[in-house]
Amino acid sequence: MFSRLFGTCLLGLALNLNLFAAAPAPAAYGPIPTERQLRWHEMEFYGFLHFTVNTFTDKEWGYGDEDPAVFNPTAFDADQIVGAAKAAGMKGLILTAKHHDGFCLWPSRFTEHSVKSSPWKQGKGDVVREISEACKRHHLRFGVYLSPWDRNRPEYAKAEYLTYYRGQLRELLTNYGDIFTVWFDGANGGDGYYGGARETRKIDNRTFYDWPTTWKLVRDLMPGAVMFSDAGPDFRWVGNERGIAGDPCWATLNATGRYPGGSSDGLNSGERPGTAWIPAECDVSIRPGWFYHAKEDAKVKTPAELLAIYYQSVGRGACLNLNLPPDRRGRIHENDLRNLSEFRRILDATFAKNLAREAKLSVSNERGGGKAFSAKHLVDGKRETYWATDDTVTTPEVVLTFKRPVRFNVVDLREYLPLGQRVEAFALDQWQNGQWQEFARGTSIGNRRLLRTDFVTTEKVRLRVTAAPVSPALSELGLYAEPAGVAVGKKQ
Ligand code: FUL
Fold this sequence. Notes:
By secondary structure, the protein is α/β, with parallel strands linked by helices. Helices cover about 20% and strands about 25% of the residues.
């Protein structure tokens, strides 16, 4: 037993040190992701749950003077909510534990303005507890949104407010198990109830919140959690609430001088080479509003709209955070469920089979001529392995030759992220009438690049890296066909 364990350890060590590889791995280029960011990238698609007094008052931004008695879902069902997210393919959920109105979905000991003052479950309910536990049961990661702007609190805009805010953060990060993200919203409209003052309070976003201290608290209490804001530190807003990343969309940003609630310049496309790895999240609601409104029941985004968003968010290297607003029952509405399930059905049918696996691969260069960085890794379905070239080869190509013509309309590419974002431009060719014909081109790849094109039928496909400051390191290449009858619309 001991010797087997020892042998396994030695093998692991040898693999780690790359002892069996013909050449050392390429050196990383530019800013690179942390371990916690890599885990976040792997999620790709997760959801928001916007739920509070607004659900019952039909508002988007509560003023902060709402009577807690209005919060009274009639048939709250955490398993129905989390099950809907799971069935849609989401890997996590972020709950608005407190939105701008200040009402807390958990019984915080720092305020009475919470579920404990509501009739729901005779004041004994805890939405944060129920959703976090349902997430565990369904194997989704759980995250929290805690609005920095609080229109209920008398001390908002004064230094004491930070003690209150951090006390709440501590409650959320210590009582509800693992938290994968803390989502810090930059919005601040100024006016509010503020304990009865009913006035406008201006704060300086750059200094008031003293973010470094709050970020440190999160790092201390939940080291694996990634933090969101307009400016990171771990992932950034994409600059719009339509769910659309820029093209290109770099995972890097010039971080100096940026702060939550600051300028959104550069957030949509990122900045290259950048000073920090701060990839984009696309947040968008399945309905026009973030909160549930019965009048929007017929305005749920269609499967075709959701697909277009997916290709322009996940497909541009970002993560997609799709909001599902629980209704007044405390459930996800049937119309949302219907569109989500058709969206999922199409995605599953599309990505069921990677046609590139049937091809013979030939490449213009393979690092060290050896197996460790072989082009085979492009089609092994593993993000941990990759095809790399010698340091001097920055614009290689790979040709896929098929025995029979293949038909596809989606190309899927992935870079090996631990070595940084390396590829700056690429092109794709198909073989037609004895010659190459370009059918798509792109710039940034990063975590994932999906190109949704017209249908191509061909016996040979070529990927050319056309610009890179260093040798590329690509971990995946896929060719897929969307099922018949999908409204593709314009190319994505
Ligand atoms: C914004 C907020 O003002 C909205 O209500 C919503 O929470 C959205 C996700 O972020 O800044």
